[in-house]
Write a structure and sequence with these properties.
There is one protein chain. By secondary structure, the protein is α+β, with helices and mostly antiparallel strands. Among the domains are: 40-58 and 293-365, conserved putative lor/sdh protein from methanococcus maripaludis s2 fold, CATH 2.40.420; 62-68 and 211-229 and 239-284, Elongation Factor Tu (Ef-tu), domain 3, CATH 2.40.30; 103-178, Helix Hairpins. The protein contains three helices and 22 strands. The strands form five sheets. A six-stranded antiparallel β-barrel has the order 4-11-14-13-12-15. The protein has a four-stranded antiparallel beta sheet with strand order 2-21-17-18, with no helix packed on it. Helix 2 (104-140) runs antiparallel to helix 3. The relative contact order is 0.19.
């Protein structure tokens, strides 16, 4: 073998050895890179499973409950309160006696007016009899026509005085009856600011009676959401006195004029309350359920809307992947969204800050387990 051939063979062998070494180094680097990817660990608070559920959408509402029927009973006559017959929280029937006001002066006026009526009735009776006699005498030519006319005028005057006395008697009778304070409706006494012995003036508030069987809620809705409102539409709400419990009502009236300052429309919601659980003054918060349907539902924090299209981060085969989705209804009350396409029931999605995990990253989730499925 010549020296030149030996040199060429050695060069080829060296190049092959270098190539083999480079390949082995590349494989080692890839293996090292693969081994350097550490699985991300997320807690159960960072994941959610897509579920099929009922979703409701509509304008949010809030306000304070008030009785649908409420009456403030006021004194129509002045005087000392002799006695009260109802306490706060006591149930009363319409027409039930609530209190008495001293009637001494009014009873005297009543008796005087009644006596005046009797006197006027007697005077009218005498005047009519005299007029009848005068008419008979005038027919016989025994008295002048002028005397007959005078007897007729006497009857007219007596009847006028009788009518005036009867009117005064009716007023006195009415005033006397007003010393008895009675319930204007069947319900419960919610306020009683007076006690026996108090001296009240006409117009003074004595009792407040409410009907607890039906409540109302007045709320404001943005004018832009007016198309979602209609009389009879169902309303769902919760109150601070019953955490975790939902109550229902319906829209009774919609104000046809929006507030020019706030651009909001007032609505009145009627709420049945036969059990009497709801009371006036409780703060209510909920929404008008203008649309209801079944669909795939996730919390709003599971959807990233910062891009051109909304997306979610799904765990599939133990790794994360970005999935573009189509959104449907939004439930403001429960902060949930409907996903119309892109995921399936049972898919596991990341929530909130966990969505920042890069696609393709292995993820370890303790609860719930990875149940991701292809859409």
């Amino acid at each position: 073998m010549s020296v030149g051939r030996v040199v060429r063979v050695s060069a080829v062998a060296l190049a092959g050895a270098l190539a083999i070494g480079a390949c082995k180094n590349g494989e080692s680097a890839n293996a090292a890179e693969a081994n350097s990817i550490v699985a991300a660990k997320v807690g159960k608070e960072n994941v959610v499973v897509v579920e099929q559920s009922e979703l409701k959408s509509g304008p949010g509402i809030s306000g304070s409950l008030a009785p649908r029927f409420e009456a403030t009973v006021r004194a129509e006559v002045g005087g000392a309160v002799l006695q009260t017959y109802a306490e706060q929280g006591q149930a009363v029937r319409k027409g039930a006696l609530l209190a008495r006001i001293d009637e001494t002066g009014l009873r005297d006026a009543f008796l005087s007016a009644r006596a005046a009526v009797r006197t006027a009735e007697q005077s009218a009776t005498v005047a009519r009899r005299n007029q009848e006699r005068s008419a008979a005498l005038a027919g016989a030519g025994a008295i002048a026509d002028r005397d007959l006319e005078m007897s007729k005028l006497s009857v007219s005057s007596a009847e006028s005085q009788l009518a005036d006395a009867q009117s005064r008697f009716a007023i006195a009778q009415q005033q006397l009856a007003r010393t008895e304070i009675r319930a204007p409706l069947t319900g419960v006494v919610s306020d009683r600011p007076v006690s026996a012995g108090d001296v009240v003036q006409p117009g003074a508030a004595l009792f407040t009676v409410v009907d607890p069987s039906s409540m109302k809620l007045e709320a404001s809705v943005r004018a832009e959401e007016l198309s979602e409102l209609r009389p009879g539409a169902p309303v769902e709400f919760s109150v601070n006195g019953y955490p975790g419990r939902t109550f229902a009502g319906r829209i009774a009236r919609i104000n046809p004029v929006a507030d020019p300052a706030t651009r909001q429309v007032r609505i009145t919601i009627e709420i049945p309350n036969s059990g009497g659980r709801l009371v006036s003054g409780l703060f209510a918060e909920g929404r008008v359920a203008s649309e209801t349907r079944e669909g795939l539902v996730v919390p709003v924090t599971a959807v990233d809307v910062r891009g051109l299209q909304p997306s979610v981060t799904r765990i599939k085969n133990g790794k994360t992947e970005k999935v573009t989705v189509e959104l449907g209804l939004r439930d403001e009350a429960t902060e949930r969204l409907e996903i119309r396409s892109g995921v399936a029931a049972g898919d596991t999605l990341l929530l909130g800050a966990a969505q920042g995990i890069a696609p393709g990253t292995p993820v370890t989730v303790s609860v719930p387990a990875d149940r991701a499925a292809s859409p």
